[in-house]
């Protein structure tokens, strides 16, 4: 029994450490996932605090995992882990049974899990933690108090510094579709074997106080102007297999609204894309652009902040993109992509680029 409890304790601890480390590699990714949950729940006022929540959550997972392995403080750690796993089970259960969240972000973007897989994982972990709690007296800690405090303090400091580093210098391991070596055009193609959802356009009309829904291609014979149009929506008739392109929203437009994406990818020489969702006036843009132009002839700033870009940047360098796409492409703003056609050759945060 002792060996079984030891294996169980190490398995739970290592899984929490692994989960925390993956998300600590990209805390902004977890922050964006939290915003997705808050948007669905209608508590958008919490969106400004998601990064702080993510930093604390990642640190808690890693420190609690270490604490479980060293068994200090053992009882308190098990109760903390029980609280965490109950919370995680609620999130993954909501994602599974509501269908409103596609992935829970349990292992970040590096290991995307379906809501079903995530929920099953959390239930297994919940049972494992309960077993450890019920057998608390059979697995007493022998860890020296001072050693335990030192290990947990060192873990907390190390996790905090690691997250501070990636927030300034990009994730150490890039698991996003915009990582170095990827071809954006290739990532926009449908995966082999992909079966899209089959949908029907339903039109909503009101007549004599009653609501009617008609298929867009099939209206009743008595349809006339007494039917007042209200809305239209897509109804999924048959679900596809869930395979979708890794990149689905990459489109760049000039300030006048012209889509220049294809022309940009056809550029015959290396060029630079500078991603910045919002234009921060405190960034040394003049110095940054000057250094880039010393080496590259073509430099474009990709942003969703049209007014800010027009106020602080040269107009000929500005291209407008979707904010979600920019958040996915670049965790630090601004981030430089050295491009060769549609291929990403280098990816560097502005801090590292200016430090060269």
Structure overview:
- It is a single chain.
- With 356 residues, the chain is α/β, with parallel strands linked by helices.
- The chain has 3 domains: 2-169, no CATH class; 198-238; 247-355, Glutaredoxin (3-Layer(aba) Sandwich).
- 47% of the residues lie in helices and 15% in strands.
- It has 12 helices and 8 strands.
- It has helices at 2-24, 27-41, 50-70, 74-98, 115-134, 145-169, 184-187, 261-265, 285-295, 306-312, 323-329, 350-355, and strands at 198-207, 210-215, 228-238, 271-275, 299-303, 318-320, 335-340, 343-349.
- The strands form 2 sheets. A 5-stranded mixed β-sheet has the order 6-5-4-7-8, with helices on both faces. Strands 2-1-3 form a 3-stranded antiparallel β-sheet, with no helix packed on it.
- It starts with a helix and ends with a helix.
Give a brief rundown of this model.
By secondary structure, this protein is α/β, with parallel strands linked by helices.
Give the SSE layout.
Layout: H1 2-24, H2 27-41, H3 50-70, H4 74-98, H5 115-134, H6 145-169, H7 184-187, E1 198-207, E2 210-215, E3 228-238, H8 261-265, E4 271-275, H9 285-295, E5 299-303, H10 306-312, E6 318-320, H11 323-329, E7 335-340, E8 343-349, H12 350-355
Parallel strand pairs: 4-5, 5-6
Antiparallel strand pairs: 1-2, 1-3, 4-7, 7-8
Helix pairs in contact: 1-3, 1-5, 2-3, 3-4, 3-6, 4-5
